[in-house]
């Protein structure tokens, strides 16, 4: 018999169309940390790959032959939440800047996540008003999972299921 958690999360998977529910905006220099965020989301929510877009991580990239700019615009606009990995590299990325600006203009959910020693000071202008969580702080990653669960209407797995991924941020998160 399937658990209530599985059933609720499977309902989330349906009806997404061609758009992912979660879009991870990041610099190509931050691919390793982006892959860790993908692993965390998959472990915490048992999500299938098609519900997450992360262009720098194999299995989550855009389809071959896709019109990149057109698809990115649509997915950034239509995803339920955009998680932006905030680092020195992402602050220099034109695509990250455009993706952030689009979400700001749309007033849609945006979760800044500090990685690699990045600080909230990297969020400039109107984005400086967004509270950022730190990937190196386990409690803040737990908070992100709780907030995503509430926003997306999902039931997360018990923290013990994804604790190992959170610990990886402390050792491999640069």
As residue ranges, the low-confidence spans are: none
Helix/strand-derived category reads alpha/beta
- In the CATH hierarchy, the architecture is 3-Layer(aba) Sandwich
What kind of assembly state do the chains in view correspond to?
single chain
DSSP summary, beta strand count: 5
- Overall pLDDT score: 89
CATH level 1 name: Alpha Beta
Query: In DSSP terms, counting alpha (H) and pi (I) runs of 4 or more, how many helices?
Result: 7
Radius of gyration: 15 Å
Helix content: 40-55%
Strand percent estimate = 5-15%
Superfamily at the CATH H level? Answer: Toll/interleukin-1 receptor homology (TIR) domain
From the 3D structure, determine the CATH topology. Rossmann fold
Q: Tell me the major beta sheet.
A: 5 strands, parallel
For the record, give the distance between the C-alpha atoms at the N and C termini, rounded to a whole number: 41 Å
Overall structural domain count: 1
Q: What secondary-structure arrangement, pairings included, does this model have?
A:
Elements: H1 4-13, E1 22-25, H2 31-45, E2 52-53, H3 68-78, E3 81-86, H4 88-91, H5 94-106, E4 110-114, E5 133-134, H6 138-152, H7 159-172
Parallel strand pairs: 1-2, 1-3, 3-4, 4-5
Describe the structure.
The protein has 174 residues and is α/β, with parallel strands linked by helices. The protein has a single domain, classed as Rossmann fold (3-Layer(aba) Sandwich). Helix content is 47%, strand content 11%. It is built from seven helices and five strands. It has helices at 4-13, 31-45, 68-78, 88-91, 94-106, 138-152, 159-172, and strands at residues 22-25, 52-53, 81-86, 110-114, 133-134. A five-stranded parallel beta sheet has the order 2-1-3-4-5, with helices on both faces. β1 (22-25), α2 and β2 form a beta-alpha-beta unit. α2 runs antiparallel to α7 and α3 packs parallel to α5. The longest helix has 15 residues, at 31-45. The model has no long low-confidence stretch (mean pLDDT 89).
């Amino acid at each position: 018999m399937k658990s209530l958690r599985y059933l609720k999360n499977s309902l989330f998977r349906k009806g997404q169309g061609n758009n992912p529910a979660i879009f991870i905006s990041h610099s190509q220099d931050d691919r390793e940390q982006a892959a860790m965020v993908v692993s965390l989301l998959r472990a915490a929510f048992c999500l299938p790959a098609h519900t997450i877009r992360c262009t720098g991580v194999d299995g989550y990239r855009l389809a071959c032959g896709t019109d990149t700019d057109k698809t990115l615009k649509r997915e950034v606009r239509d995803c339920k939440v955009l998680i932006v990995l905030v680092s020195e590299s992402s602050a220099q990325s034109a695509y990250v800047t455009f993706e952030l600006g689009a979400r700001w203009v749309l007033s849609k959910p945006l979760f800044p996540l500090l990685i690699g020693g990045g600080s909230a000071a990297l969020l400039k202008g109107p984005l400086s008003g967004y509270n950022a969580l730190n990937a190196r702080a386990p409690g803040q990653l737990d908070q992100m999972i709780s907030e995503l669960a509430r926003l997306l209407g999902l039931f997360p797995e018990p923290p013990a299921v994804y604790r190992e991924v959170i610990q990886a941020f402390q050792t491999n998160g640069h």
